[in-house]
Amino acid sequence: MPALLESAGPATSAGPAPSPASSTRPSRRRAGTIRKRIEIAVFAGPALVVFLGFVILPVLLAAVYSLYNLPPAFKWENLAEPERFIGLDNYVRALTTPEFLRAIGNNFTILVLSPLIQGPIAIMVALLLNRRMRGRSVFRLLIFVPYVLAEVIAGLSWKLLLQPQGGVNAMLEAVGLGALQQNWLADPNIALWTMFGILTWKYVGFAIILMLAGLQGVPEELSEAASIDGAGWWQIQRHITIPLLGPTIRIWAFLSMIGALQLFDMVWVTVAPTVRSMSTETMATYMVQQGQFAGQPGYGSAIAVILFLISLVVALVYQRFALRRDLAGAVTTGVR
Amino acid sequence: MTVTSAITTGRARSGPPAGRGRAGRAGRGLGRGTAGRGFDWGQPFVYLIALVVAGLAIGPVLYVIIGGFRTTADLNANPAGMPDPWVFQNYATVLGSSRFWGNVLASMILAFATTAGVVVLGIMAAFVIARYEFRGRQTLYTLFTAGLMFPLTVAALPLTLLLRTIGLHGTYLGVIIPSIAFALPTTIIILVPFLRAIPAELEEAAAIDGTSRIGFFWRILLPLSMPGLMTVGVLAFVGSWNGYLLPLLVISTGTLPQDLWPLPLGVTQFSTQYSQDTGAVLAYTSLAMIPALVFFLAAEKRIVGGLQGAVKG
User: Fold this and answer.
1) Is A203 domain-assigned?
2) Chain B CB within 8 Å of residue A46 CB
3) Domains in chain A: how many in total?
4) What sections of the protein cross the membrane (chain B) (predicted)?
5) Closest chain B CA to residue A54
6) With contacts defined as CB-CB under 8 Å, which chain A residues touch B58?
7) pLDDT tens column, A2-18
């Protein structure tokens, strides 16, 4: 699959369309033009309508709603009521609410820790396993299982395992580490770290698979040559393989960071609402809590806009400083 | 040193670069085989690491599945033990409940409808962008690709209000249509280069033979782009099957009965409702895993390939 996609030519622009043989006679050409326009409209129309109506419009509406104090039972007429327009008050309120500020902090904690902790684990495991060995495909299948499960299912499983009377504490007890028993998901002091552990479990397999795929693109000849010159295993990895794995690592880190900023499902189902509001709130959970379940769509929309702006800035900064060699212009234009 | 040589031989690559023929690889293999090294001590260590990592990955999953075979009393008495005795009551109850099958059915409807919509709308739009020459083509492409910048999370609240206004709130369509819309950017980004790579000569030949462009689309382009469509379809299916935020906002706050909620919602609801009956919750959760796991086993190559394609470009 990757080979096919790679060979598909430059994806950075739509480029000139291959023009098929077309008649040059004016009358037929004109009829052909009209026909062509109809074809274009019929083919691209449905996708365009759905996309504009259900992606672009809601995003624009979020920006509009964020300037209003809207009731839970929102109606369009509310936007015309002058007393509902409150300017930037929703934003001021969000940025002065400790709970939301902690949510931003939590998102960034996970954003920074994910590459720092999952990255080295994934790279080391991938380097060790990048060899001909029995059961390799079974191994790939097994480590990919957590990634394939829905976050909700994985989260509920861990919730059961991490109950005070659950499997994890019982196993700690059984191996004589009873002193390490915790109320993993209900103790506000450690819930965020527990959450990070679960996320690592869920996503490190994906990172390993990507790194293994990236290693396929590192020429064997280089490490063979180095080995002939007397370089040891770690020297080869450190000075040849890992640098050549750079593009894969940087793009994986990017995906991981964007994921960290959008984090919702896992936190929402795994941590009880009271503990969440004390310690593991993320921007997305706070947005849904306030906007939907506390009935403040205007305030929730302001959170959504802040979340969008933060993601945008992170993406642009990361692209500017880390990705620019790998995919020129990808984030700004949205084209891969 | 021994580790080094084992590493460097690696695995045969999927796409052999130019100049690396069969002979070269065979020669290397021979060389490795006749190197006459002693026992490779790196190998057991690597297997140990692999075993530990794989164990950590599926341990919790196994715990949930095995836990489903235990009574709640047994679970409470000894949370870390094996079933004693093995009971099938939990699984039987779940499998006999209309609720579980209703959840599965709902998830199937959502996933299949979303996949079909994404594939059909995506290939049509990608066809126009890839193979028609007209003003605004580049703009159209940029518009779709810019959609990557707008995650569902950002649009979720206004989207819910919008669906209320047009009467789709609380319905399957209210989940399906937005899911299609948010899957379109990735789909088009994957499909456009794919369609573009099909040589213009084919289209010219078809035109000379009197085939219209639509005919070319149906008879030549569509069959040739099957691999791309499969990748796109699998990604859309998995995304829909695992999706939680949209069903939470659109369906759980609507009037649809819980028996007809999609699986992720249904599982959370069940686990809240029967939180005291751990055995039943474990059984419900592990049965909810099975469709995703089976589907994954069937489509592993496509999922991994699609992800790598998305990452490597």
Assistant:
1) yes
2) yes
3) 1
4) 45-66, 104-128, 140-163, 175-195, 216-238, 281-299
5) B178
6) 142, 145-146
7) 333 333 333 444 445 55
